[in-house]
Amino acid sequence: MITPPRRLETQNSMENVQHKLIDVIEEMWTQKDVPLEPMHVARDIMNADVKTLTLDHTVNQCIKFMESYKVQHVPVVDLPYKGEKKPYFVGVVSQRDVLRLNVPDDEETGIHKQEIDRRALRQLLVQIVARKPHSVSLQTPIQDVIAALVRYHIDMLPVLDKGDLVGTITITELIKLLFRLDKAVKQLCMELKDAAMASNNSAKAEVLFSWISRTVQEIMTEQPICLDAKDNLATAIEVMQTKEIRHILIIDEQKTFVGLVSDRNILKSLPFAGRRPPRPPKKFREHLFASTPHAKIPELPLESIMVPKSKVFHVPPGFSVLDAADIMNKNIISCLPVIDEQEKLRGIVTTTDLMRALLAAYEPAEKDELILSQSSSR
């Protein structure tokens, strides 16, 4: 198991430590003499109902498995040999690993499923599985879980206990935690409307009310990376790898938002890459974006693969953070462009920004910034 990055330590005042949101919630719920579900370590939030595939399953079976269970990551195990009692956890196959083989017919790009090499669909997972992925233990603090997901640009962490796979944590589990915290805070805020109770807990009340009043404008990325619709896939790939981002906003000559391109949109337009290279990647998403030198597809203009504005969920700057998280969660999307009343692009809020907001509930703001600066996976 690879240990997630340690939280960076700073010199914080005792006041900041005492008034972390999670501490305030737990202290005030204790005063109410009402039990509160634990929300501190990986065990508290992980999904313990883990579905797995084996090294001998095919890519085609993996695609159908993901569609059937509506998951984007599949833990892969090796079946036990004689004398062994349990399967051995090997690694993970993500939706991005097989996305090039799971595309609809598209007249604009000229990509047709029947043109895909059927041998690729019969390829075994042993050839594409990401081995020894970053993982956490049952007792890994939630702060470290968040920091690992963001720093390593991943959306899922296996939870291991003595080498055995016992659960998984995805962005979905963390968004659910965001909702759990919000529900607890709102209940406390309702009670704090009583003047006497509020005066006795003024500092704590300020922490609670500031949590529920947060807007998208407070957590969004104000200067997102943008390209023109006439730019091509090769340019978008280079920008994503250089900036280590997963979304590019498309704007016109008037700087008006017209569409969105994600790494998934690009992967659906690239030919199957084949076996995962054994060496560690030198660039962001290197093995996913890999293509043959003679492939013409990277020359395609972004307008041929972008999601047009009319089909992109977007929100105004004053939109609630929790409402934005709800839209992302229900529609299984990872970003929302932020557009004001004059149709001006103001920024973008991503799942990384939501993770930053969640981390703020567990650590003082000064520490949040140190952990996640230079680590955005937008």
SSE layout and pairings?
Blueprint: H1 14-18, H2 21-31, H3 42-45, E1 53-54, H4 59-69, E2 73-78, E3 88-94, H5 95-98, H6 118-121, E4 130-131, E5 136-137, H7 142-151, E6 156-161, E7 164-170, H8 171-191, H9 195-200, H10 202-212, H11 216-219, E8 226-228, H12 233-243, E9 247-251, E10 257-262, H13 263-267, H14 286-289, E11 307-308, H15 321-331, E12 335-339, E13 345-350, H16 351-359, H17 365-372
Parallel strand pairs: 1-2, 5-6, 8-9
Antiparallel strand pairs: 2-3, 3-4, 6-7, 9-10, 10-11, 12-13
Helix pairs in contact: 2-8, 7-16, 8-10, 8-15, 8-16
What does this structure look like?
The chain has 378 residues and is α/β, with parallel strands linked by helices. It has three domains: 14-41 and 174-213, no CATH class; 44-170, Roll (CBS-domain), CATH 3.10.580.10; 217-372, Roll (CBS-domain), CATH 3.10.580.10. The protein is built from 17 helices and 13 strands. A four-stranded mixed sheet has the order 1-2-3-4. The chain has a four-stranded mixed sheet with strand order 8-9-10-11. Strand 1 (53-54), helix 4 and strand 2 form a beta-alpha-beta unit. The model is unreliable at 1-17, 104-114 and 365-378 (pLDDT under 50).
**What is the CATH homology-level superfamily of the largest domain?**
CBS-domain
DSSP summary: helix tally: 17
Helicity, as a percent range = 25-40%
* Quantity of strands, as a count: 13
Physical arrangement of strands within the biggest beta sheet: 1-2-3-4
* Structural class category: alpha/beta
